[in-house]
Amino acid sequence: MKVLRAIAAIVGLALPLVSTYAHSAELKVFESNALKTVMDELGSQFEKATENKLAPTIGTTAELRGKIDQGEVFDVAVFTKTALDELAKQGKVAGAPLITITRVGIGVAVRKGAVKPDVSTVQAFKSAMLNAASIGYVKQTPTATNMKVIFEKLGITNQVQPKIKLLDVVVSEAVTKGEVEIGLTQISEIVPYASVELAGPLPADIQAYTVFGGGIASFTKYPDAATTLVQFLTSPAAVSVLRANGMEPL
After folding, report:
1. Which of 53, 49, 43 is nearest to 5 (CA)?
2. pTM, whole model, 2 decimals?
3. What CATH number does the domain located at 105-209 have?
4. 2-103+210-249: in CATH 3.40.50.2300
């Protein structure tokens, strides 16, 4: 146990630890695409520190919430805070701990080596969208909702509509394969991909942020382990990983 606590201190898991040698848990974690890279790294740290195991299911918040609504069992959910709050009102997610972890803005992705469009100002971003051969983002996501509003605000909805491809795959993968010239998605879904580059975030005047949080299932069989994981996601170790992946800890 002394070794376990030493590991926990190194990764910043300064929390009451579950007695995992006798009661190791396998936590079913529903995690947003936007947090996959972060959760891969932090999940590995958590597993080493506690000897619990994580079994992730990755998807859009809409997809994961649909699974919960259909009664699929989970222990921890890490996706948009708005959805978590709604699930808490329905009694499907516990009211505590229900934490805010981070926010992330929308970025512009292009294939590695391609000419990066200028998106540094609102006018430059508008021109880039009008000049793009194709634009892609994942349907039923905060980005899709926000881009509809942004294009309307810029007065270019009719011009860009024929270019838009609603994706079922991660945007960076579609850009890599040449399915779309420009991808619009959470910055945290661009930065980790070596095959794409971040042309830039949306200009501040039109930027739209999505806030992500973490919560535990109301009826999890492992409340202590689940609580420890959720709290770990705001630890010093987590903050550094979030920032390295283009997210802003809150």
Report:
1. 49
2. 0.86
3. 3.40.190.10
4. no
